[in-house]
Amino acid sequence: MRTTCPGPNTLAARAELDAFQETGALRFVVDVENSRGCYVRDVDGNVMLDMFSHIASLPIGYNHPTMLEVFTNPRNVATLAHRPALFNLPPAGYAKTVRETLMSGAGLTHVTTQMCGSCANENAMKQVYIAVANRRRRERGGYGAGDVSEEELSSCMVNRAPGSKPYKFLSFHGAFHGRTAACLSLTHSKPTHKLDIPAFEWPIAPFPRLRYPLDDPACAAHNAAEEARCVKETCELLDADPDVVGVIVEPVQSEGGDNHASGAFFRSLRAECASRGVKFIVDEVQTGCGASGTFWAHEQWGLDDPPDAVTFSKKMQIAGYYTKADLVPDAPYRVFNTWMGDPGKVLMLEAVLKCVKNDGLVENARVTGEYLREGLHALSRAHAGKLHNVRGVGTITAVDLDSSAARDDAVDALREEGVDIATCGDRTIRCRPGLYFTPKHARVFLDAFDRVLARSSG
User: Fold this and answer.
1) Distance between CA atoms of 186 and 94, rounded to whole angstroms?
2) Where are the extended beta strands (E) located within 162-231?
């Protein structure tokens, strides 16, 4: 570290940006050209271990040669230079590219590409609404083009029933699913996301608040009862409102505080949805693409019946969602925008998947995550009373401090030690490194954290 962070060059750049853009969230300005691997360099020459990876979205680090080759390979120039309206005019060979990238290991039969994670969740919900409406029309007898009434067609144009349906989605306290209009009605992690924004009055279920360590008998008993309570209250909300047609849940409530639940909880939730004909969406925007120690975090739940839809973005480079066949829209343009993703981002995903396969990065996340949590447990013993609730899957790992102030002070001190890491919830530090983050890198973080904790009071 050559200066404090943010340093003078970052502060100058922020002042320049601030003339025409809101800059309150700006952490520091990155020298991308001179950043490498798991280490980020800022414009002041500070080099830091990057444990947040651009909000969990930089899968193989800075300037990886496989990723750079995407942009220097002459065969890719036409794809990178032209951003087509994919659902109208896809480029030649695109079906093969999608099949070999997005559909490899998808687990579901169809994919719809999108612009960002919020777009993915928003449009996945739309596909549920369309499918449920069509199913209910069929159940009324004889489904066909003429089964859509003139009243439905005219009333939807003025946002009224019966054309505009009263359908709802159930979400969970502590959830974050994005900042678009409907997604904000599913998001319950920070008031700043929602303040002053109109929202739907949709049901919100409790998400389990587990106690740690998980193998402690008292914690295990509490957690089993807590998860049973949350499933019961979710079922009561579903049974009380027939307009709830879908449930959406994160494998780890990342923005809400890195809150976890067991595979048994998610299996129960999925079964209760299926028994009621309620669609079940898993939001893997932050957890997908290997960081959990499996490619998709929900693979660890042991589901007998896969989700109806799985949304993705961030480390996948392109956003979108997978669905079962029954959620495919019944007509063109029902789910649509100009670009519907970007074929250039699929080329970037191809590079990521090549690295994941060739370098065993999913297994690396599993092994490194175990090492990281063992190290955090050791720090909690060495600095009694300062760290709590070590938890995680793969490198999606978190720990709590005593208070928001203690957490924020620790994050600032870690940055001065050359480690950039982020927060969530009220008092949580969360780790979201890239896929090449190894036990060697974890040791750098743990040693720095040890020094920070040794200097802290209380």
Assistant:
1) 33
2) 168-172, 204-205
H helices of 23-109, in order, are 53-56, 65-72, 77-81, 94-100
- Other beta carbons within 10 angstroms of residue 82's beta carbon come to 11
Residues with catalytic annotation?
176, 283, 314, 338
CA 453 to chain centre: 29
We report the CATH number of the domain holding residue 223 as 3.40.640.10
Contact 55, 27 (CB under 8 A): no
Q: Please name every residue paired with 47 in a beta bridge, in sequence order, or none if there are none.
A: 41
**List of residues 6+ apart from 31 with CB closer than 8 A:** 41, 42, 43, 45
* Secondary structure element (H or E) that encloses residue 386, with its range: none
pLDDT grade, residue 142 (50/70/90)?
low
Evaluate if residue 144 carries a pLDDT over 70.
no
Residues 426 and 258: their CA atoms lie apart, in Å, by 10
Q: What is the pLDDT of residues 75-131, one digit of tens each?
A: 999 999 999 999 999 999 999 999 999 999 899 999 999 999 999 999 999 999 999
**Over 70: is that where the pLDDT of 143 sits?**
no
Q: What is the DSSP code (8-state) at residue 32?
A: G
CA-to-CA distance for 438 and 449, rounded, in angstroms?
17
* Backbone phi and psi for residue 393, each to the nearest 5 degrees, phi listed first: -130, 130
Report pLDDT digits (tens) over 286-301.
Answer: 999 999 999 999 999 9
Establish if 325 belongs to a structural domain.
yes
pLDDT band at 145 (very low <50, low <70, confident <90, very high): low
Q: Is 89 contained in some domain?
A: yes
Q: Provide CB contacts within 8 A for 427, sequence distance 6+.
A: 400, 401, 402, 403, 404, 406, 407
In three-state secondary structure terms, 73 is coil
- Does residue 280 sit within a domain? yes
In a domain, 229, yes or no: yes
The pLDDT value recorded for residue 280 is 98
Domain of 294, in residue numbers: 79-139+152-356
Number of structural domains the chain divides into = 1
Q: 311 and 321 in contact (C-beta within 8 Å)?
A: yes
Q: In what order do the strands lie in the sheet with 47-50?
A: 39-41, 47-50, 419-420
Closest CA to 311 of 111, 172, 175, 174: 111
